[in-house]
Amino acid sequence: MPLYICRWPNGDFSAVSARDPNEAAYLLREVGPVGEAKLFDLANFMVHFSLPKKMDTENWDKMLPPLHLDGFGAQTLCFLWDHIYPEFEKATNAVLEGEAEGSIGDEEAMTQLDQALARERVRLMPAIARTASGDRICMIHLCTKCPEQETGEAGSSLVQ
To answer: How far apart, in whole angstroms, are the C-alpha atoms of residue 62 and residue 3?
Structure first.
């Protein structure tokens, strides 16, 4: 059964296996309406969780298994960087280059990464452009890439 990744407008993502994009959207209603979210099919998906040695005292009552996210498989991680969090990937690469060159300190690195997270949170959120007088002129989509035109081994955009 295919696996779909849903990139929500607020920056979150969900993974769901479904027969087709319509079933994926139906199942994702448990999280929220797919509406403005982007849905991608993914050929390979790997994620690793570990069992902690001690309980997290803040989250013990959330009725979730006591797991920690340890990481993603290489192909999954590449997909997430390229299609789900491209702004954060750019910032991460810039920070790593700056640290290697010695031109960026920890505080500046965290500031750049925080700014990238803020951009990712709003990158896919629809916004209404307004004139100076406040008249609505159009709907715009704050997205630097057009996933409808992206295809490749990792995945392709399926649902708007």
So the answer is: 26
Torsion of the alpha carbons at 18, 24, 29 and 32, rounded to the nearest 10: 130
- What count of other Cβ atoms lies within 10 Å of the Cβ of residue 139? 9
Place of tokens 């991680």: 77
Interior angle at CA 139, CA 79 and CA 90, nearest 5: 30
How does pLDDT run across 73-99, given as a tens digit for each residue?
Answer: 999 999 999 999 999 999 999 999 988
What gap in Å lies between CA 107 and CA 117, rounded to an integer?
15
Structure tokens at 140: 């715009």
For the chain, the domains span 3-159
- 136 phi and psi angles, rounded to 5 deg: -75, 130
